[in-house]
Amino acid sequence: MSNYNYNKFTRRQFLNMSGLSLLALSGMPNLLNAMEGMSNMPKLMPRKANTNFKPDVEFELYCKPSTVAILQGSTTQVFQYSARLIQGPQQTLTEIPGSYLGPIIRLIKGQKVRIHLQNGLPEATVAHWHGLHVPAEMDGHPMFAINNGEVLVYEFEVANRACMAIYHPHPHENTARQVYHGLAGAILVNDEEEANLELPSGNYEIPIVIQDRLFDSNNQLVYVRHMHDRMTGFYGDRILVNGRADYQIDVESRAYRLRVLNGSNARIYKLGWDDGTPINVLGVDGGLLERPETKPYVMLAPGERLDIWADFSGRPEGTKLVMRSLAFSGVLPSMGMMMNHNSLPVGSDYPIFTAKVSKKVSDSPKMPTQLSKINWHTTADTANPNNPIPIGISEGPMSMLLNGRPYAYQDVQPFERIPVNTTQLLEIFHAHGSNHGNQASANQNTTQEPSQHESSNAMGGMKHGGMMGMGGMQHGGMGMGGGMGMMMSMAHPIHLHGQSFQIASRSIDSDENPSYATVRDGFIDNGLKDTVLVMPGEKVRIIKPFDDFKGAFMYHCHNLEHEDMGMMREFQVI
Ligand code: C2O
Ligand code: CU
Ligand code: CU
Question: CA nearest 139: which of 472, 559, 480, 498?
Answer without folding.
Answer: 498
